[in-house]
């Protein structure tokens, strides 16, 4: 059962991309990829590898990674313990700043529902803390009253799944527009999944392939904050669906041990924010 779920998730590693928000890409007729991310530009990115399959996550303090629940093996087969890579993930082999960890504990949301993808969020406790470097830094999270409206300032990162069945060799990045929830509900009406307040949609017509669990991020001043966790990727007229992070502030705070993750309220348009450290 767990294997089926796992493989099923894997075959759906698809997401929308929009290289230049709002504008159409010049020439692409097939898969539109993101662009290579400069090493060190996304220091919170966590590459999660489970029996060779690639997923995404993000570091939220020195020992915890936030990701999706839908691809996490539900049984305890030891060979499926994820390996988490921080500080860069270059499949071509050069990873001078990389640190790896196994996972000591997996805590997915107790009300995660695989059929609706409600509460598709999971926390991984690394086998040991990591030291922060220029290449390894935690990301900030939005507190529960945050709002992300129609806007064009969000980024997704991850490895892109190529049409030949391989992943891109290095981390890709792309700017995507947020699709406001009521609009997204309309787009998904009668389709899967049913969009709820615990989800956030992003992407447009320009589709591509990314890694499940990977972060959707917005910049506030010099700080990056994670608004979503990739839950459902889509192609064509549908945006991708992310688990909205802000409703889970309390669950995340209650679950994570050690240094508390940093939360702040993000409102969109972003001119009324006040940082709070919780
Ligand atoms: C589209 O591709 C053709 C052939 O590769 C190239 O000559 C042209 O400049 C491209 N156009 C754009 C807008 O990128
Ligand atoms: C990945 O590693 C290869 C081989 O060392 C190197 O040529 C390339 O520049 C690296 N790319 C990134 C984005 O780190
Ligand atoms: C993890 O990092 C250590 C030290 O750099 C390295 O020896 C080991 O091969 C790495 N393990 C994996 C699974 O990449
Ligand atoms: C983290 O930094 C401390 C202090 O510099 C050092 O003692 C420790 O070995 C480092 N840990 C790792 C895993 O690099
Ligand atoms: C969110 O807003 C409600 C109503 O304004 C308020 O009562 C609550 O304290 C806020 N929560 C946080 C975490 O700021
Ligand atoms: C997708 O592109 C088509 C053709 O350019 C356009 O008619 C349609 O409105 C677009 N859909 C969305 C959701 O942007
Ligand atoms: C904040 O945004 C609103 C709506 O866009 C705008 O009317 C207002 O002038 C902005 N305030 C500041 C201080 O920038």
Automatic annotation (TrEMBL):
GO biological process, one term: proteolysis
Entry annotated with the keyword rRNA-binding: no
GO MF annotation, one: serine-type endopeptidase activity
InterPro entries: Peptidase_S1_PA, Peptidase_S1_PA_chymotrypsin, Peptidase_S1A, Trypsin_dom
PROSITE patterns: TRYPSIN_DOM
Domain Peptidase S1 residue range list: 31-257
Organism classification: Eukaryota, Metazoa, Chordata, Craniata, Vertebrata
Signal peptide start and end residues: 1-23
Alphabetical UniProt keywords: Disulfide bond, Glycoprotein, Hydrolase, Protease, Serine protease, Signal
Protein species of origin: Oreochromis niloticus
Descriptive protein name: Serine protease 48-like
């Amino acid at each position: 059962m767990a294997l089926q779920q796992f493989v099923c998730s894997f075959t759906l590693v698809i997401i929308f991309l929009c290289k230049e928000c709002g504008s159409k890409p010049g020439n692409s007729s097939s898969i539109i990829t993101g662009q290579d991310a400069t090493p060190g530009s996304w220091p919170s990115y966590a590459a999660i590898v489970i029996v060779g399959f690639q997923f995404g996550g993000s570091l939220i303090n020195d020992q915890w990674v936030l990701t999706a629940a839908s691809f996490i093996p539900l049984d305890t087969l030891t060979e499926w313990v994820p390996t988490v890579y921080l500080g860069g993930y270059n499949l071509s082999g050069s990873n001078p700043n990389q640190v790896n960890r196994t996972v000591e504990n997996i805590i997915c949301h107790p009300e995660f529902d695989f059929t609706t993808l409600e509460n598709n969020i999971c926390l991984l406790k690394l086998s040991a803390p990591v030291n922060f470097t220029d290449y390894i830094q935690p990301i900030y999270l939005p507190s529960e009253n945050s709002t992300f409206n129609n806007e064009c300032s969000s980024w997704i990162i991850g490895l892109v799944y190529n049409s030949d069945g391989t992943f891109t060799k290095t981390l890709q990045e792309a700017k995507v527009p947020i699709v406001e929830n009521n609009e997204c509900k309309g787009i998904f009406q009668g389709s899967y999944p049913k969009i709820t307040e615990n989800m956030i949609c992003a992407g447009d017509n320009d589709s591509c392939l990314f890694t499940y669990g990977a972060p959707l991020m917005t910049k506030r001043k010099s700080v990056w904050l994670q608004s979503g966790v990739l839950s459902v990727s889509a192609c064509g007229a549908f945006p991708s669906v992310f688990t909205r992070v802000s409703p889970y502030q309390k669950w995340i705070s209650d679950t994570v041990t050690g240094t508390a993750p940093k939360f702040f309220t993000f409102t969109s348009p972003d001119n009324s924010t006040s940082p709070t450290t919780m």
